[in-house]
Amino acid sequence: MRWFKRSLFFSVIAVLLLSLAACNKHELEKVKVGEVTRSIFYAPQYVALEKGFFEDEGLSVELQTIAGGDKTMTALLSDGIDIALVGSETSIYVTLQGANDPIQNFAQLTQTDGTFLVARDKIDNFSWDLLKGSTFLGQRKGGMPQMAGEFVLKKHGIDPTQDLTLIQNIDFANIATAFASGTGDFVQLFEPTASVFEKEGKGYIVASFGTESGHLPYTSFMAKSSYLKDESKTVQGFTNALKRAQDFVQKESAAEVAKIIQPYFENVDVDLIETVVERYKSQGSYATDPILEKGEWDNLQTIMEEAGELPQRVDYEELVNTTFAKKAAE
């Protein structure tokens, strides 16, 4: 009888614990996040998801990929998502159009351009002058990749409108296909496409736009000002989880990071993911903390001015909220 009572007692405790766990899981705060594209460039975000860092903060993050900055911002403005992961320049565009509820950048994910210059033919001794007279397949006009690309070309004394044939009317999703089909002598590509092309002999990485353009808030998490105010606890938890993931990526090997994020890149070999992660880590593309610094913001707007895409500058304090990032970094 004593054995039976003891067994019954532990059975009741087990049921209560399972019920409590189920309740806790049910009570996780849902956060809808939209990323502008799926990219190894965003490795810390996937690490935070896979390692359960968001759940540790009481959050259930629903991630969706929305192709294009315009569509991502439309989803954010229409409350289709709570948080957007997109280039910081989009918050400036929205503000200059007169948004009633300003979009603010609250956590930085990447701090350099993430694209690479890929040549159709192998070049042993690359020089930027080789682009003169060539056909350059660039990114969408007004987007950060294209603006950073033009900034780098000008830095090396190349006028994008005079010294080469610039193609930038091809949709982002079709740029790689167009190059593979024979369009252009050079192309500006993100990873892992650049490394895949190199592996398959379709092109060769000859330079990094990230190392050439300097630090800038290339990709940040942003939300409506009202959301940051009304859901401050949720935003803080989200930023805390991101900081843990950033620390993990900085500390762990590229091989370990690649293994963790592979589920998000099912058609990419894990060794290739490792190569890409190592490349981004070595050039300092992953932000070490979520704080968006004023110097980076100023560099962003300088690049936009150089591209003729910035009618007027927007103050750092107006569109950057570092409250959550600084607390997470403490």
From TrEMBL:
Keywords: Signal. Pfam families: NMT1_2. Residues 1-21 form the signal peptide. Belongs to the bacterial solute-binding protein SsuA/TauA family. This is ABC transporter substrate-binding protein. It comes from Lysinibacillus pakistanensis. The lineage of its organism: Bacteria, Bacillati, Bacillota, Bacilli, Bacillales. Its main location: periplasm. It is found in: Periplasm.
